[in-house]
Amino acid sequence: MANVLRHLPELEGMELGYIQGLMKNMDDDQASLFAQVYRARRKDSQMILILTLLGFFGFAGLHRFILGQIGLGILYILTVGLCFIGTIVDLVNYKSLAYEYNVKMAHETLAMLSSTMPGMGEDTSNS
Amino acid sequence: MYGYYAIKNWKVLKNRNEGTFRHWHPFRTSASMKAITNRLSQFPLELIFWIGSIVAILTIDPSVSNHFTLCPLENLGFDWCPGCGLGRSMNLLARGEFQASWSMHPLAMLAYVVIFSRIWNLIKNLKTTHNYG
Question: What burial class does residue A75 get, using C-beta atoms within 10 Å of its C-beta: 0-12 exposed, 13-18 middle, 19+ buried?
């Protein structure tokens, strides 16, 4: 059982709880490797917030591109963030957007590491 | 304001006797606040937004010439932007008028595909990401 705060102290809130749940079955070596790879892949929610704010200056939807939702990004650019309504909704919602992306990245990281290191991240399919 | 009062009280209590410190914790007041913000963060705001936008698209009437618009650009007096007519085009497509829809805005089908795939993803995420551990 590795402590998430030792390896990824910058996490907070729901993401902290989720990653702690993933780290339950790792020892410290596996957890530090996981933390390195995951830190390189995760997106900070503040960056999402700033990119969303750029939507008020005409560059709407950059956060959707960064989060890998290309179709929605194109839709936002064409309609100036759905007439600014989409931009405002995403301003309220930026934390869950980042959280959703980070959970996806955590599972990708886990899958990648477990294919190279057997015994890593077993019994996490239920979470 | 209340936070300041709590901290002041906490110092007084701490100086008087340490025993009450355990029962009267200064940060306990934030527990209910935390519950509220937690529930807010789990509330699927984006899902409701997209479903509401689809409903709004389906209820507009594309044939009105001087239509009501939420678009701030048009209300400011700009008469063209790359998304102009997309909502009406999506509405026409839902009615089955493909020719009129294409001439209003050619990307209506793409918008439908994108929004519905996003709604599908959000519904899938409701199950997987909101109960961890």
Answer: buried
